[in-house]
Design goal:
alpha/beta; 6-stranded parallel β-sheet; 11 helices; 296 residues
Length: 296
Amino acid sequence: MPHFVIMGAGRVGVMLARTLEASGHTVAVIDQDERAFQPLRKGFEGRLVTGVGFDEDTLKRAGITEAYAFAAVSSGDNSNIIAARVAREMFKVKNVVARVYDPNRAEFFQRMGIPTVASVRWSTDQVLRRLLPEQALKGDFREPSGRLMLTEIPLDDGWAGHALTSIERAAGVRIAYITRFGEGMLPRPDSAYQQGDSVHVMMRTDDVADVTRILSRPPRVEDEEMEADYAPASGHRKHPHAPKKPAESGVTITPEQEHNETPVVEHEFHLGDTPPELPDPLELIGRHRDSSKGEK
């Protein structure tokens, strides 16, 4: 059973604790003020730990060593980010999120690799989306027929550096926008996924299980080969009937040219190479006239 540690027994912390416990998880809540636990005194079976949320001993008493996720949702931005970094860097907790009150600090925090949520009325839902990946797949929006949904979906770190277009092809989704350093961005043809990005996709509702399975794992070799088969600048796949390039001759010959008596060749050479000798144009014209007479 996954264990969750929450720092901060304010409104968001209390709602998180009760929601996670109701879902069958074990929960520990940390706060410096013992009076803050009052809303949790009745009916809450998790641990209530009094202490500083980024103190090593306090975190250990809360069960951080076996924690699946850690949420820092106290009233102080600095305390939240310090606690989140301690949880991730010292105790290697993979799923970490910090709540911030100053949106200008969100970019700074996310550059450290700590996902953040703003101080808004739906903070609890946003924290849950980052702690429990399956929560994100409920969708932010569904079109009237219910067949399509817009949702934020988590990606395995192995996708970092891959083009967004390759992610779309691998999972069969359309990326609507990404959130990077706290700011929304529309994807461009050359955009790539960076670790810490929040990816919002439009997808078929029936494909939730398949999309989750594909993107929660590192890319397959087939996906990487497919990505290499696309031109990075244009995003277009190489045409299956593109000219073949024999390795020995260093020239390009199209299938049509293979059937001509006098094939026209395109020489490929690079800066610094000696240009190859080309046929005399007058000689080629003479051959063409001779062949034309023979056809008559």
